[in-house]
Amino acid sequence: MTRRFVIVGAGVAGATAAATLRSEGFAGEVLLVGDEPDLPYERPPLSKAWLGGKAPDIAVHPAEFYAEQSIELLTGTRATDLDCAARRVTVGGRSVGYDALLLATGGRARRLPGLAGNRVHHLRSRADADALRRAMVPAERLVVLGGGFVGCEVAATARGLGVDVTVLEMGAVPMERAVGTEIGQLFADIHRAAGVDLRCGERVEAVQQIHGGLLVRTDRDVIECSVLLVAAGVVRETALFEAAGVGCSDGVLVDAGCRTAVPGVFAAGDVAAHAHPRYGRLRVEHHDSAKRQGAVAARAMLGEDVAHDEPHWFWSDQYEHTLQSCGHPGGAGADEEVVRGRIDEASFVRFGLRDARVVSVLGLGRPQEVMAGRRLLRAGHPVTADQLRDESIDLRRVTRPAPA
Which of 36, 109, 148, 354 is the most exposed place for a label (fewest CB within 10 A)? Predict the structure, then answer.
């Protein structure tokens, strides 16, 4: 009988999995189900180029790809029931049997109590980005609640459109959990130099709708704005899977090969709490990880003994700056940090070392050296702090073995 693989979630993880099944030679049925009305698309541009009107197309694959690859794509369709014992999932009111099921549902933007109305926005989907772009008006004020990556990227994009921006961040500096205090302070300076009213350690107490706008009351001030963006992170919706007996804890629990403990059920992308061979169990919200996990999950569905063991990789574009990161999230796991260049000059690479090997790389304005550090990390090549710090040494040569 013809086998059927069902993928619930049509983001980059799901779309990559579907394409990988075909490229690996799977000839059975592939059903890809997404709850958004759009073709699968790339999310990173939503806070940057797409929001700024500079990305003409963000589709993962062109529309004709799915028909050409015999992938049945259902958009605007939700999964509403899952019976793992019977291997059936209900999508759009239709009960579908499966031989293997991939959960790639991602998450939704976190809502905060008391913050609602047509001037309060969130950013997770293309529709969210389109609505926010329509709401932003040059010379009118946007308040961004949250100074993480999304909040900072939106602030930079909005300033490029001539919008006045205030960012309210509870921490001491923006992006502190991900990059640390020193680099977070650098980005605080960058945003303030671009005209952002960045306020750290300031707590929102209430938001009141007024004629033509909003009043945002904090523990220090009252700010009037035309639109508010809540950038407070992502929530995984796992209730359906938990009810079906799939193990979940801050995401769907999977092994290194994206397999759950339930036979025939896999998970990938933002919804997956992945047992990474390098870093242990964690859940990340990076485009690159979602794409790689989607490919690994597809091969695991085909019975291959595979694992997603690549170092985590992400980037953030803010103004003319591109921050790049590879390795252990936040640089954790290192017993020594080495900086090449100058953080205060926005030109540096910060390496995390453990046992004379690179475990993390975080760089700004030095993409070639970041890539050289990435190769060192992946290869596990021994290196000294002095080699990394010495700018007269070409890091690309350090990655090469010595001649015999």
Answer: 354
